[in-house]
Write a structure and sequence with these properties.
The chain has 505 residues and is α/β, with parallel strands linked by helices. Helix content is 29%, strand content 19%.
Amino acid sequence: MGKTEKVIRINGNDNVAVALFPLKKGDVLPSLDGGASITVEDDIPGGHKIALSDIEAGERVVKYGFPIGAASVRIVRGGHVHTHNLRTLLSESPEYHYHPACGGKWKYPGDIPEISGFRRGDGRAGIRNEIWIIPTVGCVNKTAETLARWGDREFAGGAIDGVYAWTHPYGCSQMGDDHETTKTILADLAKHPNAGAVLILSLGCENNTIEGFREALGPYAEDSGRTAFLSAQECEDEIACGKALLAALADRAEKAKREPVKLSELMVGLKCGGSDGFSGITANALVGRLCDTLCGMGASAILTEVPEMFGAEHLLMDRCETRELFDKTVDLIVHFKEYYRSHNQVVYENPSPGNKAGGITTLEDKSCGCVQKGGAAPVRGVYRYGERIAPGRGGLLLLEGPGNDLVSATAMTAAGAHLILFTTGRGTPLGAPVPTVKISSNTALAKKKKNWIDFDAGALFDAGMEAVCSDLLEFIMDIASGRRKTQNELNGYREIAIFKDGVTL
């Protein structure tokens, strides 16, 4: 990595650097490699790329040490490199080959720290003790919200961290796999260890019946102290019935006590949204370093957003511990591309307008920055959307899911993530059902949106990776132990979204 006061070159093989601040045409930059200084040929916004050498038309543009596209026209040294002169190199159907580069065992050199959590009846540990209300169908959303507001006023505080309703528009007028997906995700949420008690709220005539939902819950349905069921059509006053059930659930949840839990039991989701040109340099790189540390301790880290692996998927494939995991990763990528094509959509219609405004040009550019969140740890599991991850799995785990912020955050929650590390360069208030730690890629955003941002990765430029990673680990341990709350928790910004793929009746 090379850096001056105004630009940073991420990898020694890169032929572009990233502007740390806006550059003006005519500015003169010192050399990054001992050669001649660079004269800036265009006005270049902060976060955008500057050519470090002449790049001929068709020549590959390299960032993060990997090609992020090819020049569509000749680019002069010191020129602005972006959508006007850079095109993707991605194809619809590339061939994949396994070149294992796992690097052997991955172990933390020291004692595994402890956090404070809640031990559940199934052996899992949770980091919150909340009561969750899960509607089986969107028809009872407002009933669920009414009960959650009442329950939060009555029971929140002390041992109970809050009462929440996870509303959604589905559960009826769905068929086949689409219907099963809704039921599976809702059942996964009902089993989550951050919930000390759960009320399943039904209308009574929907496709997602109480009987079918009980089957999806399995043994959890029989835990009458933790799980209660209410069919609104079967009682005269569903609000009164719901209040009575919540009171009984609160009696159960109030008995839970925090106890020491090894950090190796933690499961974190890795997410980015509203990315900018700094995301892959600071926030995602920081989360990647923390991911490596946690995986070395035996903890689990979930990486999803499959479309934002396109163009960098080979980096993850080579880190698969086994050939079987490589084959599953290939299938994961190919399956998602087929999903795009089945809807007659272009596979590489990405990045978003906001990403481009922040300096991200091609999907390769975005993806190479995105996968930085996964650090360098070996890939130890590949999961389909809706699959729950067994406790103690450990390592970097790939999960099927789209790039959409709320859908992917919900998918990781349903899979078992206790909290989510959410990096952003442009900012977002969004929150999942679990604590959602917002990590800004730049200090300006952290200062501007203090009500959204929990941690400033822009501090890397001054304090360095080791110090900031240590601070983030301590911050995460405080969040997990209940000593602090995230901004999404403080603001009450918590919701779910389910990945729908089917007709609506």
